Amino acid sequence: MAVMESERMFWTEHIVQWRQSPQTSKVFCNDRELDFKIFHAWRKKLEREKRKNNPSLAVQKNFIPIIPVKKECASEVITQEIKLELGKGIRVCWLVSGFSELAQQLREMELL
Fold it and tell me: Which secondary-structure segment (H or E) carries 37?
């Protein structure tokens, strides 16, 4: 039992470090000479346990909130700032005067 717990602590620590790094999991493991398949298995195991212990996380797993924030521009026109945080430090921001403009921009980017 003590071996399993120390192994859990070992992988938890490395997974936390990986989440804080800009690296892909494969590069992270290669740099630290960690077995990628074992790393991935522990990551999935710990995520499952986390969702099991906190059911509200299971609902939010594939949900990305879009939160409009009113901003005033120099011309006094109120626009919406749309921010998407995709994880691993990736953020996407749009300043739009309406959601139809955002939809048009997404279509142009082939995201909608």
Answer: helix 36-53
